[in-house]
């Protein structure tokens, strides 16, 4: 077992206008701890996160239909509650009748999440998507009630349309957003156009998902070759969203990143994570992990600064495959 001195340690950033300090690298649980990874492995990954100073753990009620929250509740019960920042989400269907962001659903789902997570509050409660079927005023009022009740310290949103974010910010007497959770990576840069500029003005931080493009940016997938048998893409339980990233044009561009990373003295994962963290509005990059060594490797990206030459080389390597 490595000692603390041989492990990387992460830096921290302020989460929006909140007093929370979150680790630049955070531990996610989307496809991993909702059934893709055995309990022992998940527990080892959480332990590895704490070893390197990762204090921010992100989940959602819909991950495994409560399975991820339940597992994290069991594992985190062995840690002092003040030692970590816990985030979960609400919106996607939990049953045929339980979905969306109505007041009734927000109150029902926060209580169910807290029970599974074995805690009396989450630090961040996020709207997993925008609900076109519920008046915005109703959603925001319900979130304010959850905060006032002490069940959530702060609120955030994930993948909301910019217009809806702006409308929510204009409502009087509601809780203020502190975070936005968009997909963001070297490949997927869409948030740079409107979401990040708006959030910068409003004191809202990004906590980004899929910064490694589900592992594609590590270079493990080779164009024209079979998928590694131990990879996420080859896993029946974890591969549902990766197909569009396995296009040969994308994989060829990623291979062009290898000499860029090597020239900067970095691994491919370090390059990809440091690229995301170069953006001041990003508070944390959410990574999944099925093995403790992946947690340690990702944590090593915290604190890395990429120079202008490296950033330009990244853009040249990626070319037209970037989504803006």
Describe this structure in words.
The chain is α/β, with parallel strands linked by helices and 324 residues long. It has one domain (4-321): Alpha-Beta Barrel (TIM Barrel). The protein is built from eleven helices and ten strands. The protein has helices spanning 32-36, 39-51, 67-76, 103-117, 136-148, 162-169, 195-202, 248-263, 268-277, 292-299, 308-318; strands at 12-14, 21-23, 25-27, 56-58, 85-90, 122-127, 152-157, 177-180, 205-208, 282-287. The strands form two sheets. Strands 3-10-9-8-7-6-5-4 form an eight-stranded parallel sheet, covered by helices on one side. The chain has a two-stranded antiparallel sheet with strand order 1-2. A hairpin with a 6-residue loop joins strand 1 and strand 2 (21-23). Helix 4 (103-117) packs parallel to helix 5 (136-148) and helix 8 runs antiparallel to helix 11. It is globular. Residues 1-5 and 232-240 have low confidence and may be disordered.
């Amino acid at each position: 077992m490595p000692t603390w001195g041989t492990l990387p340690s992460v830096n921290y950033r302020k989460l929006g206008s909140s007093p929370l300090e979150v680790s630049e690298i955070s531990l996610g649980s989307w496809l991993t701890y909702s059934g893709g990874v055995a309990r022992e492995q998940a527990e080892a990954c959480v332990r590895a996160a704490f070893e390197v100073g990762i204090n921010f753990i992100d989940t959602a009620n819909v991950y495994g239909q409560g399975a991820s929250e339940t597992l994290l509740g069991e594992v985190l019960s062995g840690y002092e509650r003040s030692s970590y920042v816990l985030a979960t989400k609400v919106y996607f269907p939990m049953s045929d009748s339980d979905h969306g962001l109505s007041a009734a659903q927000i109150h029902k789902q926060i209580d169910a999440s807290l029970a599974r997570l074995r805690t009396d509050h989450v630090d961040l409660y996020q709207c997993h998507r925008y609900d076109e079927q519920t008046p915005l005023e109703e959603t925001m009022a319900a979130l304010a009630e959850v905060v006032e009740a002490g069940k959530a310290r702060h609120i955030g949103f994930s993948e909301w349309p910019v217009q809806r974010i702006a409308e929510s910010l204009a409502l009087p007497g509601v809780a203020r957003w502190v975070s936005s959770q968009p997909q963001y990576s070297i490949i997927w840069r869409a948030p740079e156009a409107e979401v990040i500029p708006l959030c910068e003005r409003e004191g809202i931080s990004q906590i980004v998902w899929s910064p490694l493009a589900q592992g594609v940016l590590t270079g493990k997938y080779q164009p024209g070759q079979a998928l590694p048998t131990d990879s996420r893409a080859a896993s029946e339980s974890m591969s549902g969203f990766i197909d569009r990233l396995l296009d040969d044009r994308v994989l060829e561009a990623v291979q062009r990143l290898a000499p860029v990373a090597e020239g900067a003295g970095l691994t491919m994962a370090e390059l990809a994570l440091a690229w995301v963290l170069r953006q001041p509005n990003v508070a944390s990059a959410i990574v999944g992990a099925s093995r403790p060594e992946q947690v340690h490797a990702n944590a090593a990206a915290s604190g890395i600064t990429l120079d202008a030459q490296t950033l330009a080389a990244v853009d040249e390597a990626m070319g037209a495959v970037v989504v803006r």
